[in-house]
Amino acid sequence: MADRLAQVSGHLTNTYGRGLLAGEVAIITGAAQGIGRSAALLFAKEGAKVVVTDLDEAKAQLVVDEIKKSGGDALAVGGDVSAEDFPQKVVDATIKKFGKINHIINNAGFTYDRMLHTTPDDAFDIIIRVHVRAPFRLVRAAAPHLRIKGNTENRSIVNVSSVAGLHGSVGQINYASAKAAVIGMAKTICKEWGPFGVRANTVAFGYVQTRLTAAKEEGASIEIEGKKVALGIPKALGGGGGSTQAIPLGRPASPDEAAAGILFLASPLASYVSGHCLEVTGGSGI
């Protein structure tokens, strides 16, 4: 036990001088904007080499350019996380460029809101495919590079969830179901891959200021399988800066604050944290 404590203490002492993730490699999906972009920039600032993946490769490249301009190292990989070839494409590109994988941050996602009784099969299926099946397939593809006996490097999986997955959410039967599923996924990875030194956790966000919580009337959208899907929340339901009375801190989080929660779970500061769901909500839902 004393040897283990000394090892952790020494690792932290060394990393503080070079960044919490110095020399480590992180794949972050949906990292061209919002929380994913903030996470990519923060991870790079803490010394990680970042693989920035996004549906929009041009925007992903802009994040990579920003990281490199600041002296970091990164790689852009464009593509749909739910595509059959995407997991192997990302894993192969990462290994070719950086030679290893330390962290996978399953962040990519969007909302496709409908009341339960009006939700068509395709609106339910696509959310499950992007938020649940895609993370599972990416982690599975990376297994040979993470499940390595005797590897003492810091390695982790962080799934991005939501308070919708913890408490349900009106008009989001698909999203709430998916966000609940990735919590169970992380707990299972924790149990299966713990013997290999791989930690697996989830971060559940509350109200974070992104395009998913902006007013739907602003017109933000995403194209999925040729269909235009509107993003955001109607103003009547609080989109674009609705009431924060239910949040003890009295305000929404910024994407940077949300990204800090992800960094904590991936960093050596959480070296003995696995199977946990960290609520980053400003105190709402307690």
Taking the sheet with the most strands, its summary is: 7 strands, parallel
Total helices: the number is 8
CATH class category label of the largest domain? Alpha Beta
Q: β content, as a range?
A: 15-25%
Helix content: 40-55%
Low-confidence stretches: 1-17
In spatial order, strands of the major sheet run 3-2-1-4-5-6-9
CATH superfamily of the largest domain: NAD(P)-binding Rossmann-like Domain
Shape: globular
From the coordinates shown, what is the CATH architecture of the largest domain?
Answer: 3-Layer(aba) Sandwich
Structural domains: how many: 2
First and last CA, distance:
35 Å
Number of strands: 9
Question: Taking all residues together, what is the mean pLDDT?
Answer: 89
Task: Please outline what is shown here.
By secondary structure, the protein is α/β, with parallel strands linked by helices.
Name the descriptors.
two-stranded antiparallel sheet; alpha/beta; Rossmann fold; 16% strand; 286 residues; 7-stranded parallel beta sheet; 8 helices; globular
